[in-house]
Amino acid sequence: MSTQARPEPCLQAERCMQAYVDRALSVEEVSTVEEHLAVCPTCAKCYSFEAGMRTVVRQACDEPCPDSLRAQLKKICADCDCE
Amino acid sequence: MSDDAADQLEPAVDPARLAFDEEALALADDVWRVARRLARDYQAAEDLVQEAYARAFRSWRSYESGTNLRAWLLRILHNLAIDNARKQKRAPEQLGLEADDYYLYERLGGNPVADVDVLVERLSPGPVLDALAELSLPFREVVVLVDLGDLSYQEAADVLEIPVGTVMSRLHRGRRVLKRALADHAEQGTV
Questions:
Q1: d(Cα B22, Cα B175) in Å, to the nearest integer?
Q2: Could you tell me if residue B3 is inside a domain?
Q3: Structural contact between residues B14 and A83, judged by C-beta atoms closer than 8 angstroms
Q4: Does B148 touch chain A (CB under 8 A)?
Q5: Which chain A residue lies closest to B108 (C-alpha atoms)?
Q6: Does residue B46 carry a pLDDT above 60?
């Protein structure tokens, strides 16, 4: 569905999606969004996909600090003579 | 030698310093994850993290106990990354093409009866990392700090020393560029 073909409530929901998933909306804004999601399966699925995509990005970047670097950081810490 | 004499020979380590060291080292995974996405390669990320921790340990007294140490460390990391970027004197990067927020979902075949989990499974790590690496630094930094560093909009604004509105704008636009890039990968069958 192109942007032009979407009804205004869906366009509004799309504009709010990132902030909603970031939990950065006000209580009133969250309420408005959720009222729309309850009656619009398309937007509800888009929101669900957005959350899933964030998880994929996090998992793709989920790389633990190498043990050799961690050991080096401990050495830097031990050698630091600052008080 | 009495215990009192031993105490005099070995200076007591400040418990606040010990607590700082322990907490800072426990955040190494978080700092590394962000550094990997900011630095040009693996070695540069290692150098960046070492430099950031050396600076953090030297200036630990300027950290206000009880505030967000992750944000404090990431601010040091950001400053060093910016210094490195300036030294490289690279040409200004272009942001790339943006897409609407629903664009990627639709390009992957999303519809009211689609199985969202199946669509999400079509996103694989390689293209995600490529798309992130292609994002210009000012946008990549915000996406990385919020999505990987778990900072709030305000905390990211404090780290980057930019208004919170700029954080939101860069974050939202950066993610839209990622979606566009991933959709283009999908078109080529590589997502």
A1: 34
A2: no
A3: yes
A4: yes
A5: A49
A6: yes
